[in-house]
Amino acid sequence: MWNIHLRIDRIREEIQYTFIYMLRKSLVSIDQCTKEDILRILSNAKKFEQKPNRRLMEGKVAATLFFEPSTRTRLSFETAVNRLGGRIVGFQDPSTTSSSKGETLKDTILMVSNYVDVIIMRHYLEGAARYASEVTSIPIINAGDGANQHPSQTLLDMYSILETQGRLDNLTITIVGDLKYGRTVHSLIVGMSHFKPTFHLIAPVELRIPDEQKRFCETHDIRYEENLDFTEDIINQSDILYMTRVQRERFTDLEEYERVKNVYILRNKMLENSRPNLRVLHPLPRVNEIAYDVDDNPKAYYIQQARNGLFTREAILCDVLGIEVND
What we know:
The chain is 38% helix and 14% strand. The chain contains 11 helices and 9 strands. Helix 2 crosses helix 6 (151-165), helix 3 (72-83) crosses helix 11 (302-321) and helix 6 (151-165) crosses helix 7 (183-192).
């Protein structure tokens, strides 16, 4: 256990004392994307939905470095590379790599950069992806760094919103659950800031939205309301209902986790009077926060949302590699 903490402290020091600016061709944070960047990627995602198999990455190799567990993100990125005609190397269990022997994150990134054209990385520490982008000239795609950012999830969420609503502007989005540690929540607020949303933010006191995100909303004139109660009245005002799970892995106090894990549960009956255009999203995996009786409701969209991850990540890969996507 001492060795694990030592390695974590060592990586934190690497991140803390590096001040080189992020390379523009990496996708580390959604806030580096302009409105035009977002719309371009979503437009290309639509092209991939219509025709997913295109050999645009033929001759290129992608590395998937997952220092944290993942199902949808890793598999959709790997499927995207395969459908684009590229090759994949990497790992999903860091205990089988030299990082378990004490190799620094910097050395791991530099070593892998010798072999590949793009690195897709998930890490348990905030800022790890940004740091990786600063020590290599190879594009880095952030597949989630701690409780910080998850830009590819945000782009697939926005693609799902666009697909279901026909627009991104002037929507009311209700976000429920873990707003403190939920990196998908933090990224979604930033991504949607270009499109004049209204947010209803529902969380227990222990998991309420951090002040940083509230200041962001205030700076960008984004309307938001915080609520403790998950009511049908709030659901009925919403165009998008974005459910999140309470993430046990982010808690150091398991008693606190037990207190809040089942505070909010969406049941099918709660959707009876909702708007016809309402769609229920969830970054998945779910635990108890969406009852299984919701699955058959036509307003449930979270399985299709996960499918959209393939098309969006194909578009992201082409964007960071500078590959043009034609009709």
